[in-house]
Amino acid sequence: MISLTDYGFSDADREAFEALSRPDLMPARVTAVNRNNYELICERGQLRGEPTGHLLFAAEDAQALPVVGDWVGVQVFNDDTFALVHEVLERRTFLRRKDPGRNVAFQVLASNIDTAYCVQSADRDFNLHRLERYFVMIRDGGIDPVVLISKIDLVDDALRREMLEAVESISGGARCITLSSHTGEGVDEFRTALRSGTTSCLLGSSGVGKSTLLNALLGADVFATQEVREADHRGRHTTTRRQLVRLENGALMIDTPGMRELGNIGAEAGLAETFGDVQELIENCRFSDCTHTQEKGCAVLAAIEDGTLDEDRYEHYMKLQRESAHYQRSYLERRQRDKEFGKMVKSVLKGKGDKRA
Length: 357
Ligand SMILES: Nc1nc2c(ncn2[C@@H]2O[C@H](COP(=O)(O)OP(=O)(O)OP(=O)(O)O)[C@@H](O)[C@H]2O)c(=O)[nH]1
Ligand SMILES: [Mg+2]
Ligand SMILES: [Zn+2]
Prior knowledge:
Blueprint: H1 11-19, E1 26-33, E2 38-42, E3 45-51, H2 53-58, E4 71-77, E5 82-88, E6 94-98, E7 106-111, E8 115-121, H3 128-140, E9 144-150, H4 157-170, E10 176-178, H5 187-193, E11 199-204, H6 210-218, E12 243-246, E13 252-255, H7 268-274, H8 276-284, H9 299-305, H10 311-356
Parallel strand pairs: 3-5, 8-9, 8-11, 9-10, 11-13
Antiparallel strand pairs: 1-2, 1-4, 2-3, 4-5, 6-7, 12-13
Helix pairs in contact: 3-7
The structure holds guanosine-5'-triphosphate, magnesium ion and zinc ion.
């Protein structure tokens, strides 16, 4: 029998499971989501699963469906090889962004994660504004961000120090680790930071070396990796699904596909945590209708002037805040329209039914 504690099952998760009052179900964790099924781990081992019709159709939107990291309530069949997923337990933490598709919606990437590692490669990919976007998403879901600068073998010590300082200036206390999966520098240190029974994930653009690092941690080529494109040094989107694995030291780690875009939606909490300093200045501005652009006595302008607030950081905050609020509005408006449309359809159908009766 497998101990679920080894897969991160906490007391809170057990309570959430027991609160379902479904003695016919057992708890399982989603380790991967495929097109047509889920990969799961439960006390009886690994198995594949599918959602019940009820779970699928009762879902108000995609957020209610299982994602990697979720604890779910399952019914097991066929000699413990197949499961029906009935329930998704409440998520302790989550990673969610704006769905990159055409409709404005939330997309939950993974859940029940303790630490999210934002991976940027030292040679090409390093970008503070992108880090800020990740911070907002990660903190919004109640997760601790850590910055991981990969491929450190490709830059010299001076550049490394510069990058560390730059990260420190925006990270709000998040740690920053530098390492190289090729030379092995920093990898053991990273491994010991990953504690047994906790869940972490690797996030970042394609080609920054997430899967290579995970292979180094596993000591085997479990995940496919691929060289970056010669022409522009971008990755080839080698990893195509999110997958949870357990390392030898008992830590749980999720590899994810490289992200092309990261839009935050309705991420107030994440913005507040990441840009608390900026928000405080804005609130302390003595004019409630201040545009912070030219008003004499504006606290924001004064802070930019005396160097306590970086103008670039302020402008990026404003941009992220507008974007997140705008997507949230579009999302709510669409939900409202869908609801009204649903009501209209229902009343038309009902009208027909009445006539026939
Ligand atoms: N020089 C150097 N190259 C590295 C290092 N780590 C990874 N690479 C190379 O970077 C390329 C991309 O690595 P992957 O692990 O496939 O990148 P990924 O982040 O998983 O990419 P996606 O799966 O597409 O999101 C491979 O050719 C690796 O060999 C490193 O520490 N130093
Ligand atoms: Mg990969
Ligand atoms: Zn102002």
